[in-house]
Design goal:
Number of domains: 1
Distance between the termini: 23 Å
Structural class: mainly alpha
Number of helices: 7
Shape: globular
Strand content: under 5%
Number of strands: 0
Helix content: over 70%
Radius of gyration: 17 Å
Largest sheet: none
Order of helices and strands: HHHHHHH
């Protein structure tokens, strides 16, 4: 899929050289959620013990929206794999960037996000 996206982007750049590539909130969150799902499926452990819809829900929702049980599973996955923890934290922090209410706040949060990740 990524090869198709990069080919598409190159073609757009050829036809519309002044076009600016923009990612919206939905697709940014989807990107991180997909990365988390791929990572957990790669590890295989979560897939063996839980239904994939449960895993998807735990990874896609904001931590305050999770039940205590779901938060426990997410914490367990973080302890088992630092890479999963890193992707999950990046997702939660980009959500914080999206919640900015002023341009100054958004720029500061995004700059911090890039510095950290």
């Amino acid at each position: 899929m990524q090869a198709v996206a990069s080919d598409f982007a190159r073609r757009i750049q050829t036809v519309f050289p002044s076009a600016i590539h923009v990612l919206d909130r939905f697709h940014m969150v989807q990107f991180f959620t997909d990365a988390l799902q791929r990572r957990l499926r790669y590890l295989g452990e979560a897939k063996k013990h839980h239904k994939s819809r449960f895993i998807d829900r735990c990874l896609a929702r904001c931590p305050p929206d999770l039940t205590e049980e779901e938060r426990g599973f997410v914490a367990q996955w973080h302890q088992e794999d630092d890479h999963t923890k890193h992707i999950y934290q990046a997702l939660q922090h980009i959500r914080d960037v999206f919640k900015a209410t002023t341009m100054t706040q958004a720029k500061r949060r995004l700059k911090e996000w890039f510095r950290q990740y």
